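Run log, item B.
One chain of 189 residues. Sequence copied directly from the ordering sheet:
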Amino acid sequence: MRHRSTAMTAVFMGSLMLASAHAADFNLTSTDVGPDKPLAQDFVFSGFGCTGGNQSPALSWNGAPEGTKSYAIGLFDPDAMQGRGFWHWLMVNIPAGTAGLPRDAGKNDGSKMPAGATQIKNGFKAAGYSGSCPPPADEPHRYVMTVYALKVNALTVPADATSAMMLAEIDANSLGKASLIYHFGRKPR
C-alpha cells in the first residue's frame, strides 16, 4: 500500500507540473492563503490537537482553457503520512461560470457550495474541507490548492468516492490546472 500511495503522490505532482505548463494563463489566487502568508487559525483543522476554525479559504481563478465546462478544486498535502500524501478537500462539478469560491465554501454541510457541486470524502473520511493539521514534530508541510478546468459538465461520483479515487477521473477530463502552495507547521508542546 505504501508504494502505491507514494506513486500516487508522484503522479499527482507530475501531472500538476505538466498541466501547469499547458495552461500558463490559468491562475488561482486567494486573499486568505499564499506562499508568503502565515496560515491563519481560521483555515486550520479542528481536531487531532489542532484548534482552528476549519474554514476553506476564499479562492478566485481566471484564464481557464477554452472549452472548460466545469471545475474541481482540491487541497493536497504531499508531505503527510511520510510522503504518501493526504487529501484535505475535493469539490467537483463546479459550474463553468464560476470564477471563485467564498470563504468556507467547503463547509461540511454543503450549504455554501455552488449549485450542482459535490464534495468528495477527504482523508479524514469527511465530505468537505478539513484544514491543515500536520503532526507537531514535522517540519512545516506544503499544501497544494489546485483548481482543475474540466472538459465535461459533470463527473460521475460513485457513492463511495474518495478524493484519491476521483483524481483519475479528474485527470482524464482535465484541460488544465492552476495551483497555489502554502506552508503550515506546528511546534511541539
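Observations after the first pass:
- Residues 110 and 132 are 19 Å apart (CA to CA).
- The chain has three helices and ten strands.
Flagged for discussion on Thursday.
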